[in-house]
Amino acid sequence: MNMSFRRISASDADSLIRFLTSEDWPFHVVSQVDRETAGQWVTEGRFESEENRSFWVVDDGAAVGLVRLMDLGDATPLFDLRLRAADRGRGVGAVAVAWLTRYLFEEFPDVRRIEGTTRQDNRAMRRVFVRCGYAKEAHYRDAWPSSGGEVHDAVGYAVLRRDWLSGEVTAPQWNDEPCE
Ligand SMILES: CC(C)(COP(=O)(O)OP(=O)(O)OC[C@H]1O[C@@H](n2cnc3c(N)ncnc32)[C@H](O)[C@@H]1OP(=O)(O)O)[C@@H](O)C(=O)NCCC(=O)NCCS
């Protein structure tokens, strides 16, 4: 792998639409994106705006994926990551999440934590979160509708700046229910 990350610009609009519409996204709420929807997402600034930045995941000169960073004015930004089907399952996801984690903490000094949410059965994404030092913080039952009409559980992960700096992964306090 020879990976780098390139920020998207206005001239990438057509490539972005092609990327989004030419693959299936089985774990996203919209699993097949049509041209109109993709165009609307681009126009409304979902990828590049004051609050959003996006980057091509480039491997050996080819765009194999897309990182989208959201809520950049907040102390807790979120991200989305999509790899082409042909490039899934070969370790690119973990490199991308390690990269975006460092980018957010270094570029935005006020960012205290970074969050990501995925469908409970997205095993590859969940492995990537854990490998990159993210801790599971949330389990939302019946929270994630899919295009087929079923409803799935969603899981939320986050990494703290202090953990990223120390290399530890601190667990949330789960057993904190007040006693009567
Ligand atoms: C989710 C995604 C980013 C993961 O990146 P990836 O490069 O494919 O993942 P990796 O190859 O690094 O694999 C990560 C781990 O998941 C495991 N894995 C991969 N595919 C798997 C599958 N279908 N079932 C179970 N485990 C799987 C790998 O063995 C690896 O495990 P390890 O850490 O123990 O070695 C990528 O698959 C993708 O873009 N999927 C479609 C879009 C998506 O679901 N994005 C997430 C939105 S929140």
Automatic annotation (TrEMBL):
InterPro entries the UniProt entry points to: Acyl_CoA_acyltransferase, GNAT_dom, Ribosomal_N-acetyltransferase
Gene3D superfamilies for the chain: 3.40.630.30
Pfam families: Acetyltransf_3
GO molecular function terms listed in the Swiss-Prot or TrEMBL record: protein N-terminal-serine acetyltransferase activity; protein-N-terminal-alanine acetyltransferase activity
Domain of life: Bacteria
Record-level GO cellular component terms: cytoplasm
Residue ranges constituting the N-acetyltransferase domain according to the UniProt record: 3-162
Protein name in UniProt: GCN5-related N-acetyltransferase
